[in-house]
Design goal:
The structure holds two protein chains of two kinds. Chain A is of the alpha/beta class. Helices cover 37% and strands 24% of the residues of chain A. Chain A has nine helices and ten strands. In chain A, a hairpin with a 2-residue loop joins strand 1 and strand 2. The two termini of chain A are 21 Å apart. Chain B is globular, with a radius of gyration of 31 Å. Chain B is an all-alpha fold. Classes of the chains: A alpha/beta, B mainly alpha. The interface between A and B is medium-sized, with 27 and 22 residues. Bound molecules: adenosine-5'-diphosphate and magnesium ion. Magnesium ion binds next to helix 1 of chain A.
């Protein structure tokens, strides 16, 4: 497998895109995220894995404030997430998100799905928004579906539209929450290919996924979470070859089927 | 040729029979009847029973309808013409039909409600059908003032200066926008209210004294008949939908005060019969309003009917909102749409779409409930039918009047029902 890291040199000298410090979150009395510390540099591609219920979704949903954290700091591109709505809007318009179940708007066409936010949030003129949308629909290789509705597309196509929709906002950071786990096996590749291309263009990405092939090929760093904590993180070769903790080893053996 | 056949095989057909039509029991009507009406003994029994009922009804209603009398001045005259035979006396519709439609609206001014109805169709067209040019929406926006002026008459400057309250509010909002969303929002509401309370009346008077322009005024107590049902029904429908949306959003709000107010309002209104609200409108308000205020009875009834329907509407729409997957809200949030934009562009279009059957149900209910105004002395078609039957000429007539009134309501309600089905089909976006 070709490693894409060569095309975009990433090191710690790059500016910080996301800074999380001593962050904790509770659902009622349930402590979902414990003392999360995490720094993501611009252009980095991070894969988060871990058993179901370990808090992976919650963590990345805190980054665009779909979930609120109760203590600690989250700073995205220099903007700290607090209850200040202005900051939240600013962060959300810079962070794109792709969901497990696509969450396309079923009452709008593919093109309208892609132009909605640019027009209403970024105030881009309609014509220009449509040009941008077509550009990204071509990038995810489904420009011919532009005038169909989401319900008429396959799962893989829908997920690629969801990626295009997020890209139309010209985000600096992309979050992916298990983007392929609701897809039939034959559609997984088309979505992963799209994401690999995105990584090649130097997008800062945080991706929750169990596609370990993707992690090996694309990630700079793999983070393993369990019970609301970051248990270990490492470059993918190290991570897969020499997992340090017992929990990681157990998880990897289950997921890789050894 | 047949020789060679004879040598090799015993029999080979060398001519083809022409294709026969399928047996009569397997085609068209006969087959349909057999499959749908006589496919089992229970089915046969039901079919025979239904046929019996239909024949019985036709035998009784048929002659009554066929013998109808359309030209007579009174029920007695009808009976004379029928001379003992059974027959309907639709002459009452001929005699009093206009009254059933317009109440006591001056007959030489019928063109005004007629024109208002025609313009209503124009105003509704862009709302109902996307192919109508969007520019017509401007007319839809001013239509309420136009209709008011046509129906009630009076100075044209009154509705005009009332309408001006909206641009006044918009202007105030534009001016105050730099001062923040909350302040400009408050100003955008306050300025029109102040305008209506303080400026609109004197301004209309002033304009009227400069350029006198008006229609002959018609008092509310002259309104009646089906026209009154349409006025109350259509206004109630037009107002209850937006109010219902606001209440539904209020009920789902995180803000305690707004949520409590919405829940309290909805539960109170739903817990009370409409007729008590109407009595409140007609009697009690007189005690609470300062003496001498002239608060139009039709307006009061419209307010009550609207509030009543809005409470039901809110619950219907809340159901539609609850049916939306959380992912839709999350996707809208993640794209940076704020609350109102997310509601308007993503949530409401979908919630309203799934609520269409319930919404139209409420509309139809509201429209038929307008007949309840008869109990507070308004002369809707039912009220007029009572007064027509009180007339010695038509004393004793029932069916003909109620069939006519029923037909009028049916046309409107059936129209709404058909339109809603059309709309559901049009908005269907999955699996074409
Ligand atoms: N809205 C919620 N309220 C209460 N508990 C929740 C909520 N969302 C998630 N959880 C719980 O938080 C834990 C972490 O969930 P999640 O972040 O979705 O895990 P993952 O994505 O790693 O599978 C799970 O135990 C889950 O049951
Ligand atoms: Mg998850």
């Amino acid at each position: 497998m070709n490693n894409v890291q060569t095309s975009a040199v990433v090191d710690d000298a790059n500016p910080v895109a996301i800074q999380i410090r001593a962050m904790n979150k509770w659902y009622g009395s349930f402590h979902v995220l414990r003392d999360i510390d995490m720094t993501v540099h611009r252009g980095e591609r991070i894969v988060i894995c871990g058993p179901s219920g370990s808090g992976k979704s919650t963590l990345i949903r805190c980054i665009n404030r779909l979930e609120e954290h109760q203590s600690g700091q989250i700073i995205v591109d220099g903007t700290e997430l607090t209850s200040d709505l202005k900051n939240i809007d600013k962060v959300r318009s810079e962070v794109g998100m792709v969901f497990q179940h696509f969450n396309l708007f079923p009452h709008l066409t593919i093109l309208e799905n892609c132009t909605l936010a640019p027009i209403w949030v970024r105030k881009v003129p309609r014509r220009e928004a449509e040009e941008i949308a077509m550009h990204f629909l071509e990038k995810v290789r489904i420009p011919e579906q532009a005038n169909k509705y989401p319900g008429q597309l396959s799962g893989g196509q829908q997920q690629r539209v969801a990626i295009a929709r997020a890209l139309c906002m010209r985000p600096r950071i992309m979050l992916f929450d298990e983007p392929t786990s609701a897809l039939d096996p034959e559609m997984i590749k088309e979505v992963l290919d799209t994401m690999i291309e995105l990584a090649r263009d130097g997008m800062t990405m945080i991706c929750v996924t169990h596609e370990m092939g993707f992690a090996r090929q694309v990630a700079n760093r793999v983070i393993f979470m369990d019970q609301g904590q970051i248990v270990e993180q490492n470059a993918p070769e190290e991570f897969f070859a020499r997992p340090r903790s017992e929990r990681t080893r157990l998880f990897l053996s289950q997921i890789l089927g050894h | 040729m047949s020789d060679t056949h004879a040598e090799t095989v015993a029999f080979v057909r060398d001519t083809m029979l022409p294709p026969e039509p399928p047996p009569v029991t397997e085609i068209g009507a006969v087959r349909w009847v057999r499959e749908n009406l006589f496919s089992g003994w229970l089915n046969v029994l039901l079919t025979l029973g239904a046929v019996y009922v239909i024949v019985w009804l036709l035998a009784h209603i048929g002659p009554w309808l066929l013998n109808s009398v359309w030209n007579a001045g009174s029920l007695a005259e009808c009976r004379q013409i029928l001379d003992g035979a059974t027959g309907a006396c639709f002459a009452v519709i001929r005699d009093r039909g206009q009254q059933l439609l317009y109440g006591f609206y001056p007959a030489n001014l019928y063109w005004r409600p007629n024109l208002a109805l025609l313009l209503m169709v124009v105003a509704l067209a862009p709302l109902l059908f996307p192919r109508v040019p969007r520019r017509v929406l401007w007319f839809s926006a001013v239509y309420p003032a136009v209709a008011y002026w046509l129906l009630w008459g009076g100075s044209v400057w009154f509705p005009v200066s009332v309408l001006l309250g909206f641009p006044a509010g918009y202007l105030a909002w534009r001016v105050m926008r730099p001062a923040g969303a909350i302040l400009s929002g408050i100003v955008a509401v306050l300025v029109p209210l102040l305008w209506w309370a303080v400026v609109a009346g004197p301004l209309a008077g002033l304009l009227q004294s400069i350029v006198p322009l008006g229609l002959r005024p018609v008092r509310s107590d002259q309104f009646g008949g089906f026209m009154l049902s349409i006025i109350i029904g259509v206004t109630g429908i037009a107002l209850s939908l937006p109010l219902g949306i606001v209440l539904a959003l209020g009920r789902r709000s995180d803000m305690f005060l707004i949520k409590t107010l919405s829940v309290g309002f909805i539960e109170f209104i739903r817990g009370v019969p409409l007729i008590t609200l109407l009595f409140t409108a007609s009697l009690l308000l007189n005690y609470f309003l300062p003496p001498g205020t002239n608060f139009d009875i039709i307006l009061r009834v419209i307010i009550m009917v609207t509030l009543f329907a809005a409470a039901y509407m809110a619950e219907v729409i809340r159901g539609g909102l609850a049916a939306l997957p959380r992912g839709q809200y999350e996707a809208a949030d993640a794209l940076g749409l704020d609350y109102w934009k997310a509601q308007r562009l993503v949530i409401m279009p979908q919630a309203l779409k799934v609520s269409i059957p319930g919404i139209v149900n409420t509309f139809i209910g509201l429209f038929k409930d307008t007949t309840l105004v008869v109990f507070i002395g308004l002369l809707d078609p039912i009220g007029l039918s009572n007064s027509i039957r009180a007339d010695t000429n038509w004393n004793g007539i029932y069916w003909e009047l109620f069939i006519f009134i029923g037909l009028l309501f049916f046309i409107f309600c059936f129209g709404m029902s058909r339109y809603s089905q059309h709309l559901e089909r049009r908005l269907k976006t999955d699996h074409h």
